[in-house]
Structure formats: structure tokens, C-alpha cells
Amino acid sequence: TNNRKIKIPVSSSVTGAGFNGLSAPRTVDLNDDGTVDLIYAGDLHGNVWKFDVRGTTSAEWVVGLSGAPLFKAVAADGKPQPIVAAPALSLHPTKNKVLDESNDGKADNTDVVMVMVGTGKFLEQCDSVGACDGEASQQSFYGLWDSNAAITSRTDLLEQKIGTYTAADVSQLNTRLGLDGSAGKTALTLSDLAMSRCILPRNDAGVFGLCSDTGEFKQRQINWDDEETTLYGWRTDLPITGERHVGTPRIAANMVLFNTLMPDTNSNVCGFKANSSLMAMNFASGNQSMQRFDVK
Fold first, then answer.
1. Count of alpha carbons within 13 Å of 2, Cβ hemisphere only?
2. How do residues 62-98 score in pLDDT, each as one tens digit?
3. For residues 146, 15, 162 and 285, what is the CA-based torsion angle, rounded to 10 degrees?
4. pTM of the full structure
5. Which residues of the chain have pLDDT under 50?
6. Residue 197 β-bridge partners
7. How high is the pLDDT of residue 103?
8. Please, which residues bridge with residue 164 across strands?
9. Alpha-carbon span 139 to 157, nearest angstrom
10. Is the distance from CB of 123 to CB of 283 less than 8 angstroms?
11. Is 159 exposed, middle or buried (0-12, 13-18, 19+ CB in 10 A)?
């Protein structure tokens, strides 16, 4: 029969110690022939795996990248970030040409896929009070380019930083928009922007500004047309303690949309209270999908 069990490496240097398991998978048909070519899935130790199933027989199906994970999600402290949700997949914004130079009906190259994946889980009792033993306490969301080579470090990814609007933002926006409290120009208050988030702009020195900053502070993007770029995607850390990605991310137009969950760790063990957020970010660079306030 045309099926096969594909084993991933079990070395603790790759998969980590303790129990493990794959997330739900996502598949790609590169040449639009109705047959799956690649499969991507994460695991509980933060690995993002690529499975190459372009072969015409199951005996040719293998773990991609010579058995190495595409990426290992770890927090700044080096602890693994578990992945339980299926990734979202898209063609790369510029490097998206699928070749079949041998004319055998099979895609020759697999370096055209962007993999969007979030970390965190809510499965065990320890998840409800923070992080389980050995796992990172801070979770992240990643946009990874599968260039057909493993991404070996978080520093290979453009850092994007999630921020919230502050009183300084409100003052700046009121001035910029001419909202002085007069008739028809009701001034914004901080409560109008409660829980609203942004991707913080940054200046050329790498300093992050306020949500509302302009001028020298700009949304950072990856110049994918620059052949000298050393970036292979982007990352953003979820800023609230205990916040983690849940559900399944989706690609819509040029955005990746995903939910996060923030359980109330002080709630009664027999009950459940939580907050959540819906994030929309540019899938190619992780920057803000649009300017939220502007002068018309």
C-alpha cells in the first residue's frame, strides 16, 4: 500500500527530554497537480518539521532537510516553546517560483514556502498556572521561510515587538489628529484604546518607539529582494505573562491572523476565566497590517 510511517529523530539534542508528540499537520501542493508535496508540523519540544513526500512511492518519503527540523522554537532563556496548533502556510512573497526543469511533473525545488507557527499549549494542569517544567514561560509567534536549509537561531529572524497604547500615545494622537475637545473634535482617552495593541515602530538605531510614533520611527520590513539579506523570517514574543497561541492561524490577503489566550492563573481550579486577543500581522515581515490612526 502507498503509506509509510516516517520517523523523526529521537536524539535528545534535537527533540529534547520527556514526552513528545506532533501538532496537527499542514500540507502543500507545490505544482497544483492535486498531490501533496510537503507536510509541515510542530512538536511539543518546539521543533518545526518538514516532510518531503514528492516521491512517487512511499519509500521515497522522508523527513526534509536531511532529518533536521526547519526551526526549533525557544524563548530568550533557551527553553523550548511547545507547538500544538497546525501551522499556516503560504507561498513566499517574492521567492515563489516552482520549477520542473526535468518535466517529470514533480516540483524540483521546495524553497518557496512561508510557515507561520505559534507556540504555547493549554493541555496540562501545569499550563493553567504558567509553564510546565522545562518549558519556556514566554511564548512567541513566528513567520519562517523554508529556504531548504535549517534556521538555526532566533537571531536569523527579524524581531517585531508587540506594544500597547499608553497615555503618551493618546496625547500624541490627539495633537496629530487635531482632537482638542471642541465641537466635533472629541479628544481620545486612554479608555478608548484599552487593550489595543500595535507592532512598535523602530528607528535606524534599533530603538523601539511608541505605538503612535512616526518620523524616524517606522515599521520594519524584510527586503526579500535583497540577495544579501541574512534574515529567514520574523518573530514576535507574546508580551503578557502566561499568554500563548491557541487555535489555528489563517492567511487572509497579506495578513496572518491568529488568536492568543491569557488564562487567569488565580481562578478557582474548578472554574475558568481568561482573556484573549486577535492578532493581524503582515505575513511577509510580521509588521503592522495597517496604520490605525491617520490624518485624512
1. 6
2. 999 999 999 999 999 999 999 999 999 999 999 999 9
3. 0
4. 0.92
5. 296
6. 164
7. 84
8. 197
9. 15
10. no
11. middle
Cell 509553564 belongs to residue: 131
Q: What are phi and psi of 85, to 5 degrees?
A: -90, 145
Instruction: Tell me which residue has cell 499568554.
Output: 243
Angstrom distance (rounded) from CA 206 to CA 148: 29
Q: How far is CA 67 from CA 7, 10, 162, in A?
A: 9, 11, 34
Residue type at 260 in one-letter notation: T
**pLDDT for res 5:** 87
Give me the sign of the Cα torsion angle 245, 233, 198, 253: negative
- Per-residue pLDDT at 291: 66
Sequential DSSP letters for the chain: ----PPPPP--HHHH-SS---B---EEE-TTSSSS--EEEEEBTTSEEEEEE--SSSGGG-EETGGG--SEE-B-TTS-B--B-SPPEEEE-SS------TT-SSS-S--TTEEEEEE-B---SGGGGGS--TTS-SS-EEEEEEE-SS----GGGSEEEEEEE--HHHHHHHHHHHT--SSTT-PPP-GGGGTT-EEEPPB-TTS-B--TT--TT-B-----TT-TT----EEEEE--STT-EEEEEEEEETTEEEEEEEEE-TTS-TTS--EEEEEEEEETTT--BSS-SS---
Cα distances from 116 to residues 2, 58, 75, 126, in angstroms, run 29, 27, 17, 26
CA dihedral 97, 106, 147, 73 (to 10 degrees): 130
CA 204 to chain centre: 24
Which pLDDT score, from 0 to 100, does residue 11 have? 63
Instruction: Give the pLDDT of residue 8.
Output: 84
